[in-house]
Amino acid sequence: MMPRKALTNGLSLDDAIRRVRNGHTDAFEVVVRRLERPLRAWLAVQAPPGVDVDDVAQRSFVAAFARLTDYELGTDFAAWLFTIARFHLKTEVSRLRRIADYHVRYAPDLLQRELERRSSEPPQLQQARLDHLQTCVGQLGEHLRRFITWRYVEEIALDEMAVRCGRSVAAVKKQLWQLRRKLHKCVQNRMATEGESS
Amino acid sequence: MNTGERFIELWTDYLEGELDESGMAELQALVAEDDRFVQMAADSYQMHRLLGLVAQDSASRQDEFVCETLARLPADDEHFVDGVMQHLSQKAARENAVARHRFAKGPLAIAAAAVIALIAGLYFLRPIVERPIAKVAGLNGSLQWTGDGGRVRYDLSAGTKLPGGTIEGLTPGSWFELEFIDGSTVAISGNSTLTFSDYGQKKLYLKEGTVSGNVKPQPAGKPMLIYTRSAVLEILGTQFKVEAGLSATTLNVREGKIRVKRLSDGNTVDVPTQHRVTATADQEMRPAPVPDASTRWKSQLHLGPEGAYGKWSPRTATQDAKLRAIPYTIPEGFTVYVAGLGISRGDTPPVNLEPGCRLRVRGHMALSHEVYFGVTVRYMGGGFAGKFQTMRPAVEFPGGEDFEVLLDLQDFRLDPTLVEIQDKLPSTPFHLVLESVWCHTLDQPSGLEITEVELLPPTTSVNPAPTAPLLPPIVDIWAATSQGDLKTIKRHLAAGANIDAAFVAPGVLASGATPLHMAVVSDQREVARFLINQGANINAPAQDEYGGTPLHWAAVLGRVEMTRLLIDAGANVNVIDENGYTPLDATTLEYFSESKYRLEIAELLRESGGEQKQSEQE
Lengths: 198, 618
Hints:
The structure holds two protein chains of two kinds. By secondary structure, chain A is an all-alpha fold. Chain A is built from eleven helices and no strands. Chain B folds into five domains: 3-55; 59-124; 134-289, Jelly Rolls (Sandwich), CATH 2.60.120; 304-456, Jelly Rolls (Sandwich), CATH 2.60.120; 473-617, Serine Threonine Protein Phosphatase 5, Tetratricopeptide repeat. Chain B has a 16-stranded mixed β-sheet that branches. In chain B, strands 18, 21, 22, 23, 25, 26, 28 and 29 form an eight-stranded antiparallel β-sheet that branches. The interface between A and B is large, with 71 and 72 residues.
């Protein structure tokens, strides 16, 4: 594999696609590196529980690779890829819905409908949200950020978190809820400010 | 509990995977009756998913994703090609049968050839992809991984998937364990260089250093192969340790059997359980039982630098052979000056550490500086068992003078960089094999040289090295803490002082304080941080009638930053003192500090889940 920077710095998406079509299939790495983050972010917020987001993202890339000749150079490749991903996600969700007890086990029906409603938001929005979220997490005090680390990086159990911070499990749950709310507000504020300034 | 609170409770349980069927039904009903809950649930869910993404958003995760994605492309092509080829061969078989009766049609044959050529073309045009063959199971110290094309990475972490390549330990304390997809593990330690690959058969190339392994049964006819400069080892599934130097390879087999082939003459021997062999050109290659372990060892630097890390100088008429610490700059940016010696090497008996063992180190310092001494230990089977270290204060190493220190291994603590895997490691270095001894200074070149290291067994009596007299520890620590004198505190702790001992002097202000309480009183945050890192009990009650913890004291005294430090370090925010007060209650005690500080502290405590018990009771 070539050094990442050498690959990503040099080629535009269309250049990379052109190279893939000309037989330099390793140039597809440029496409994957360039778009994996926005695609995974978009899928992460649209996919209901039970969907393996990375798997859908990878299948979308594979499908795009297989149908690369269908893509019209000079148009928006990202939009084309997201259309493929939307199709794959829909297929996966349909498959899950057919599982008899899916809603009982995995997802409140109304949540899923709300996520579907939100899926019409432009895909680029989620990339921006992700960027703002990183900033917002960075602005948290260490005493709050540690909960994010425990829950999402170390993925430890709630009772272990409770032991580590000397609080009850119920208090930890409440703290996580408040943190998500706080971060949601922070992201929304930053998006609004960005919208005003642009 | 109102519906809002109930929704939060159920929803959090849902996100944590702790909601049962009846809870799910209740949640469904709640969100159905109030659209605001649907919005809140969706917001919270999307935030939850994005946080998951932020948490794994790293260069290594991106590499992993890209690798996995690219690996699926050829897999799909192969499937496609295989499918078509299978179809073609059946078709060809049918056509062959027909051909017995009539000649194949020329144009069809050309078309079939074209299809095969096209498919073959597709196959060979597959992207060249580095498939992960193993993942990092554990690591410590400075390491460098080099992949195909010379790609170099230092940012490895446990769980990173690797597609083969070369891993190098850069210092005597380096350790790296790799887990192959079949669960086989191999580990290097110290200054070792290992190249690994798996194209249907695992092949390892040990340029120098030590590799140990625990290998699952390998496919028939495809044993794991380890190449060194002097031998090839064939491993079907076993526990072993291999050590390779320029001219010799030494193999210790703990379990199973390994075939060793000496490269110089092709001579082959099988090494059974609990046996070892050395493959070198100038001696007979005959397996022998692993010798009994020893608890005594002495360096022999005058014989040469083999196994040593540092700049070696031979013995002269006026000075002993010595090893000078050499700098190594860690990618994080700071420099350590390290000298080290490999032990339990080659065909010498393994050296075991037992309780009561001590290390005597002799050497020279150009400039006075505190020195860290450490040992790396392994299990009898070869697996890494940890690094343990102790620090001796600068006062014991006067500049421009020779030194001799006697280190009780009882004082050695697990290397702080291993704290994340401490549950998997022993808590002491005892009953383990001594792999290496090392010492270093931090940040400044102080001209550290060692001339002799000796492991003394438990019964040996020695004349202790002279040290400057110490005041009674707790009195001295008390004074040192209030002055932020870390050196004196370190010196006492190195000499064995109890880090949580309280200074009790009835009538004296702050009587009953542990050193950490004292750091709070004098607002010495660096000292507090050091004490906590050294294992001070962050929730220790003061030995007075109130029994307040350092957090209580910080709250009462209005130490805002100290409060933050203690909370971040994991202090219990709802601990109760002898009065039944929590730290938040303590902020209501008005006569100790200004209200603005207490209000700020109260807010900090509340944010962290602090509760006010006293007011509830009253």
